[in-house]
Amino acid sequence: MDDRDKMLNAFERALLDVDRLAARQVMEQRGRDMRPIRFVEKVVLPVLEQLGAGWQDGSLALSQVYMAGRICEELIDEMLPPADPSRKNQPRMAICILEDHHALGKVMVYAVLRSGGFDLLDYGVVGVDDLVARVQADRVEVLLISVLMLPSALKIKSVRQKLMDRGCDVTLIVGGAPFRFDDQLWQMVGANVMCENASDVVPAIEKIMEEKT
């Protein structure tokens, strides 16, 4: 077992024990070479995906997965930098979790974008109809949707259709475990871009901005 496997096992154990102190210790022992965002991508997300799979196959309770997510959100709030006060010229953007239980992916992307100088609306957890109405009312041009479970990912297709029915020209950026397990899914649900990691989002936004100018 290498050092990363030991770190993954220790972090998973801490989350299942709802032991915030132990989880924080794993984070603090990650070493100087592993930046916070890399720790999130290489340790936090794989462990949460493993726990999510455990819930789906019935070996873990939803409450265990939920508490693990909350602990991770707290740790990420500590690790990732605060918002940069200087904002860049950008399209109107919003981020949300579509009818799902985990805020972790959204928290990461939101923090990464704000620390990179971007500003965006945070819709939190929303349903399809509420999301479409808010996007139209706010004249959102780029919508970022984070999901953990496949049923939530499939609902993005309904979001796309309802936005089109209302004449909303919105670029959809999606991310989350279902899209990493099926690399064709993001196109099936009508998204424009799929980001595997939080760190992929800023380059994706910058490319969209270039295409719009």
Compact summary:
It is built from eleven helices and five strands, in the order H-H-H-H-E-H-E-H-E-H-H-E-H-H-E-H. The protein has 213 residues and is α/β, with parallel strands linked by helices.
Rg of Cα set: 17 Å
| Unreliable residue runs | none
Question: How many DSSP H or I helices?
Answer: 11
Give the ordered list of helices and strands: HHHHEHEHEHHEHHEH
For the biggest sheet, the summary is: 5 strands, parallel
Which class do the helix and strand fractions yield?
Answer: alpha/beta
Assess the beta-strand content as a share of residues: 5-15%
End-to-end distance? 50 Å
| Helix content bin | 55-70%
Notable characteristics:
213 residues; single chain; alpha/beta; 5-stranded parallel β-sheet; globular
Write up what this structure looks like:
By secondary structure, the chain is α/β, with parallel strands linked by helices. The chain contains 11 helices and 5 strands; from the N terminus they run ααααβαβαβααβααβα. It has helices at 3-16, 20-28, 36-56, 62-79, 104-115, 128-138, 150-154, 156-165, 177-181, 185-188, 201-212; strands spanning 93-98, 121-126, 142-147, 171-176, 193-194. The chain has a 5-stranded parallel beta sheet, sandwiched between helices. Strand 1, helix 5 (104-115) and strand 2 form a beta-alpha-beta unit. Helix 3 runs antiparallel to helix 4 (62-79), helix 4 (62-79) packs parallel to helix 5 (104-115) and helix 6 (128-138) packs across helix 8 (156-165). The longest helix is centred in the N-terminal third of the chain and has 21 residues, at 36-56. The mean pLDDT is 85.
